[in-house]
Fold each of these.
Amino acid sequence: MTTRAEAAAGGSRLLSKSILVFATTMLMAGAGAVFWVIAARLAPAEDVGLAGSLVAAGDSLALFAQLGLNIAIVRTLPESSRRAADVVTAVLVVASAGTLLGLGYALLLPVTSPRLADVLSSPVTVVLFAVLVGMTALNVLTDNVFLALDRVWSFLRLNGVLMGVLKVGLPFALAGAGAFGLYGSVGLAVAACAAASVWSILRVVPGSRRPSPSPELLANRGFAAAGYVTYVLTVLPLLVFPVVVVNALGSAQAGTYFISFQVAALLNVVVAALANLSYAEVERTRTHRHAAVRRSGLLLLAGSLAGCAAMVLLAPWLLAVFGEHYAGSGTATLRVLALACVGAAFNYWGMLRLRLTADLVAMIGTQAVSTVVMLGLGVSLASHGTVWVAAAWGIGHVVGGLLGWMLTATVRPFADDAPTPAEELEPA
């Protein structure tokens, strides 16, 4: 049984790390906001818009480039027999995938978006964009490696401080190069952070640097694939909903929804970061996992409710930063999106529980149901206003969380003690 002292110590560790993750996320968000304010002062609005589109595309491609390795590495690295080799393998795979996706995206721009194609009009800019997407993908991966290695302070120093300083400073040097200069300011800041992260990680991780994945990592290929599929299902509504709103309500309402969601995304990013931290913490816990999962659930609930309450109260003033029009038309939507982030926290907790079962079918099936509910409600209710689209996002998350909790509480319970490395290698 977990003693009161052990439970208190575990809760204290999780709380202190959560504060560091929260601080890092806020520094990253703040630096991003300051960057765009500086960009708007230094460059024409058209360049800012084009650069923003490239940044959004690069970020999305970087997430797709993870191939589930960002999740698998958190699961396997603490007990890996070849830690350094696993890190190097994941680094090479993810960076290569990101670069290839970036290259493919850039080469298709003349067909998909001629205006963006004008920004990447030379072989040099195409190659640079592809490389920077690869480095962005690498930075996403190293964030998870830091959590797996329990090096949250390194995460703060590099992602919070170093990246923030570079993002604020680089536009002054590169804004003169137009839209690609602005994109390059963001891309180079992320690339520098990614390179520093890899160097920092390999300094402390023992073992050969030869890219030869451990048996533990290879045994979790199915887990990585399932994690990747669930991720794609999670982000699909975020890609589809803006199109749904445009088609149903027009561009003006779509703008309101976009701005409201960008503000709510600040809370969602924090909740997602806490969920990743919680998962890494639970995977390092060898015994009394049920107690660790309960602590994680309480953390996610408290963090999401606190953020939701603040955003609901401050909604008009947060939107007024973007213009009085948004404050007038988007306040209700932002408040519903803030409530939806509480549902997202519940869904992340349910998925955490499912990951501990290693039931790949349950992981994919649960997220598929959640996504279908989101899209079905969003499409059918969009004509009634952006508030209902926001509600659809939240309801889908709640359904996913309920299903994940019910499955792990009944037919697919997870063990209180973590499996041994030998058990991890046994075929499912």
Amino acid sequence: MKNPYKTREGGATVTIFVPYDCKNNCPFCINKEEYADMTGFSVEKICESIRRMDSITPNCDFVFTGGEPFADIEKLQIMLDEIPTTHKVFINTTLPVSEHQTEDDILAFADIGEFIDQPVKSYSSGMVVRLAFAVIAHIDADVLIIDEALSVGDAFFSQKCMRFLRRFIAEHSALFVSHDTAAVNSLCNRAVLLEKGHIKISGSPKQVTEVYLKDMFESMQGASADRPADATQAPNSSDKRAFCAEDYRDMRADFINASNLRNDIQVFTFNEASASFGKRGISIVDAVLLDREGRPVSWIVGGEPVRLRVDIAAHKDAYSPIVGFYLKNRYGQNVFGDNTFLSYREKPLLLRVGQGARAVFDFTMPTLEAGDYSFAIAVAEGTQAEHIQHDWKHDALMLKSTHGGCQTGMVGIPMRDISFTLLPEPSATR
């Protein structure tokens, strides 16, 4: 570089050193003693220097460095206010580590082992994020701004970060930037979708992530089409296939259902007008939950066998249609789901225009914590990895769980058997 200390406009780079007594709380300070030397430090003198440098080199950049962070935010603001808006300002500082945390705490959170002693430039992107997140997880802050921090790293580290964020958000505020809709729904109480620097929609995380999902598919596959007015309805007759789910009945069901732990779930009818998107070459025309006798239900109990029946209609010839579903909680998080692809990958169906088809999913309804749930149902064409989304209905079928005293997580899975026995006492002699 010809002039390493000049800006691109030819002005000087002005460095302002701000001392600060960090009390050794920051493990990444090299010369801690220097920060405590307040000799010659004066806000008035710094402001005078800023004005003088502005007159000498009107294109200069100002770099504030030294404090971690600057000891007195009010004094820092006085200095920043002295700089005209035409100048660029950079603040080079480290974060304030909590006096209750140590360097060992940070290194344990990052968990990058002996690589902590290696130059950061030799780190992988995942290692850099692990160390950076470990540092912010041990700072004294009221607000955190997190930009795609969970996009790298293994599942163990991601879960560790999520636990930290939930604890932090319970008492503080965070601005969370991510394309991970599940994380947004899990962490945030309000969401904003930006498009080319402008707000496209703001509202609940569920509302915003649904719009984002629609936009994502349409960016890859083109805009959604309106459903044809003469859509052919698929047959509505009851499916008489025999249930096998009775074999997997929870061995505690009689006790649970006779107690206040019984998980009653109200089932609403198919909402044809629910928010949806897709190319509309195939449409979803009906979805219903059935009992073991093939009868539509308005009330079920968690732990009982149930059948989800989905009828579709083709408005074009379609090879290898795929029908799938997600059960989502009130936050829009996917609780569980499945699709028809793997079962029919060797013998994909061929739908002709005007023809209907039916997908049936037999499963045991898990026990659900109290709250509102919905089935998002979709039909696509192609493979699981490469497909065209024809009709995705967000809240096609609503559920309301009135009691969830038997689950120990997001859902409770019916147990075929639970054993708990004493082991033989170890022999006194070997």
Amino acid sequence: MGVKEQYRDYVMTGFVKRVEPVVAERGDGAFLYDADGTEYIDCFAGISVTNAGHHNEKVLGAALAQAEKLVHACSYVYHVPTVGALAEKLAEVTPGGLQKTFFGNGGAEAIEGAFRLAKRYSGRREFLAIESSFHGRSFATLSVTGNSGRKKGGGPYMPGVAYVPTPYCYRCFAESTPDKCDLLCARRVAEIARLHLSGDICAFIAEPVLGEGGIIVPPEGYFKRVKETLDEMGILFICDEVQTGFGRTGKLFGIEHYGVEPDIMTLAKGIADGWPLSAFIARPEIADAFQVGDHLSTFGGNPVSCAAALANIEFLTGGVIDEAARKGEALMARFRELQRTQPLIGEVRGKGLMIGVELVTDQATKVYGTAQAGFVRQYCLEHGLLIGVGGNFGSVLRIQPPLVIDDAQLERVFATVADGLEAAAGAA
């Protein structure tokens, strides 16, 4: 029985429209190879995971060396050297006074733990979140996810959550423009916090760039204005860096673009270049609020994954992130130039190599180009390029390659997407 048949008969896949017809057998750098030898440029990176590239020798070598010594010993029962070393490294490289880390296995687990810590520290129970956000598929993370498509059929969800407007200038909720709105989306946070809940708000959670929501980049000054409000009201800021962390946006962490220090930060995806690991890190006074029995993870802080993460951070901070920023700006400039002649492109946005190309059927009316995005994604697949599609209506092409992708490969990416857009326009 082949792997496609095994998936059909034995793997739960009903939660996705389809599993792509790619048998991912091996990877190398920015490339993924099918079992039949077909080569793809991987511009989705396992949903923004393999930032250091597939089969990164530095990361792989560190993981294998650790595996030969110790695979598991439960890092919350015993002192494990790689766990301590990684926690110290994260305290060194994360912004502000973040210092103490809890390790888990996936992004949703990290956010659930951050919520538990925020409640314990503050003594409060309610949360603020952003419309169009995505924070995971567990009960609590879906409760603060502002996307009905992700939540359908799973309710009722956690009470005590209020949503603030998406900082989405292209589709401003007030139909304003950046030069006139005076950050109305940020100002609404204070109004909603005061009016929509009971005054028991412990934390506001936000992604520095909304990933699943369609690579939405908040305007300059948004997070500073929001953080002022949070500080005035005694509300913690949980920064969800699950997708934006570890160089994806052209800085080690996405929030660094905005000059704001979170109270708690959640990490996963790119932390260990594909080895399963997540974390949340907090200021010491917040972290120390946990009491005996409050939290634990059997596999959290796996020694092998932690060794991989240490090597991954060393690799990425050796100039790779700065290059990712340059490459991303260059690629977005190409797409913005194409926008002048390609009517399907509504907006090009992103930071670093976290790029969204929003498609529309009409640039004036901004009608969502959902079918066109699906067409382009399929075209790219058939022509050796793997990309994602996001946004609440599936109209945004998501281009998030390994940060090690080179300029020649990015030229192929641009050319293939451009050809796909031309084909989609012709098929309309």
Amino acid sequence: MPKALTLYELNSLVRETIETTLTSEYWVEAELSECHENRGHCYMELIQKDDRSNTPIARAMARCWRSTWQVMKPYFMRITGQQLHAGMKVMLKVYPQFHEQYGFSWIVTDINPEFTLGDMARKRQEIIRQLKDEGVFDLQKELTIPMFAQRIAVISSATAAGYGDFCNQLADNDYGFVFQTELFAATMQGEQVEQTVINALNRINDRIDEFDVVVIIRGGGGTADFSGFDTLALAENVANFPLPIITGIGHDRDECVLDMVSNTRVKTPTAAAAFLVDHLTEVYSFIEDAQERIVNIVQHKLDVEKMRFDKVVRQIPLLFSMVKTKEESRLEKYLAAIRVASDGLLHSKRASFTLQKGMFYNAIGHLLERHRNKLKQIELQISTLDPARMLKYGYSITRLNGHAVTDPKALKPGDCIETTLEKGKIKSTIK
């Protein structure tokens, strides 16, 4: 009967063989199928998949001891903006280790974040290419943010500090604008980002008429793990959404795909709130300018008509001064009423400003035309009463001391009177 080795002896031979044969460290490219921490150490499962069938063709365990992991983890996050997670492709520097009790594993001593960045960039470019092929990449950019964008649907984590910052920034604006916000909670970090954000968009779409814009914000935590915002499914949902979407997911690295397909991208939740406040401020300034222009135009037209009115007044007898005063007063009342009406109209009907302006101009034009016609009628009536007109028909005017004589009993002997005819004057003395 042949002599058998114990399992320990056999495993010792394997360990000695590995230690004497594989003496170097090696760079290896692989995909992470598992990655988790335990007591400060990181445990990974590495796989390689067939390019055609996507079936694993190689698999190995890897470990990164705490002393190395505490340095490698923040370094990788700082460069890539992400945490190591399942499904990520990595380039690791490893050496072999075989333990009689725990078996074989690769010990990780270093990582190349540039390799992961390159793989992430390739995936991102592939998603962008597919979105452009579908013709949806720029759909959000074609949407216009409403003038009065005050009903805001917010997609964020309810406990995120960034959500609180966003709401506070909107509420404490310097202009006293009132915004209505409603939170649609979603996971903003990790593997659940894609599905929870899509679910939130679907809930908003069911109530599409209740909102003006959608804001997707994330903040208050680390800047790692943005992979959930670089997915094709999420990008397609955002690109095809019927309302403008503003993103402020709180990172400074290159734009993720979500940023690229959204209507407007800002860096932080606070910046998203500031953008909405600034937008409404610009609209308010536009309305104020329009209001001032309307009042100035109306004032100018009234000034022109007043000048014409004054010219007519100077050409008619003193009797018409009463009419002048009355009509001037009425014009001032109309001006005051117009100003009050225009102010109320602009504040209550801002959205229909352009249509109301045209109707306003027509009303003023008709009003002024009616008053011009009325003035012409009054002028004609007064001209028929002009004494000079009566002289042409053989009538005369007799004056005593410049006053018309209507009663001969008012004359005394010795009075000098003056009779005005159409052509010339006759002076007489009463005897």
